[in-house]
Amino acid sequence: MFIIIAPQGTIIKGFDHESEVSPYARDEHEVWPGIYEEAPTSLLSLLEDEAITKDDVTFCFWRENNDLTWQKGKVEIPTGAEDGSDFLLRTIFRTAEDFVEFAEGYFELSLPLEVVAQVYEGAAITKEMIKALNPDGDIEKNLQELAELDF
Predict the structure, then answer these.
(1) For residue 125, which of 105, 133, 26, 37 has the smallest C-alpha distance?
(2) Nearest Cα to 11, choosing from 21, 24, 2?
(3) Predicted confidence band at 35 (pLDDT cuts at 50, 70, 90)?
(4) Per DSSP, what are the bridge partners of residue 12?
(5) Does residue 110 have a pLDDT over 80?
(6) Is residue 25 pLDDT above 80, yes or no?
(7) What is the pLDDT of residues 113-147, one digit of tens each?
(8) So what's the pLDDT on residue 146?
(9) 11 touches 46 (CB < 8 A)
């Protein structure tokens, strides 16, 4: 799932690889009809980055700055099928405590709450924080990726 917050609004693109509306579940390997229908070009263009893989999508929501509610295309999902949005949107955690609890249950990871809390508070990411969150990770690669994201 990608959530892009930009000056013109916000767009959320999600992909549930097990969804019946996945492009991989279709013979033509195409985006399910209607997913991007009516999405504003100014927001849809934000999905053009190759790292996002725009066509790997099972749901899309957007909200321009002047919108009062979230919008989505005119998608007809077959009875009994799901687009994955319920599951994936539930993985947005409002507190560091909620995320740490999720990581323990889902990934079987024990993360240091104090470091996760610093990330939630917007602290600058340090080598020590990366090491605490992923002791086996490539710290320099992580720092480079963060720099490329202007984080």
Answers:
(1) 133
(2) 2
(3) very high
(4) 3, 61
(5) yes
(6) yes
(7) 999 999 999 999 999 999 999 999 899 999 988 88
(8) 85
(9) yes
Domain range summary for the chain, segments of one domain joined by +: 2-89, 96-148
| Residue 60: Cβ within 10 Å count | 27
**Are residues 82 and 75 in contact, defined by beta-carbon separation less than 8 angstroms?**
no
pTM over cut 0.85: no
Taking CA atoms, 41 is separated from 3, 12, 51, 61, 117, in Å, by: 16, 14, 19, 13, 35
Is residue 37 a contact partner of residue 71, using CB atoms and an 8 Å limit? Answer: no
Answer for the pair 114, 90: CB distance below 8 angstroms, yes or no.
no
Residue 142 CB contacts under 8 Å (≥ 6 apart), including other chains? 125, 130, 134
Quickly tell me which residue has 């990770």 as its tokens.
137
> Torsions phi, psi of 127, nearest 5?
-60, -40
* 20 exposure class (CB count in 10 Å sphere: 0-12, 13-18, 19+): middle
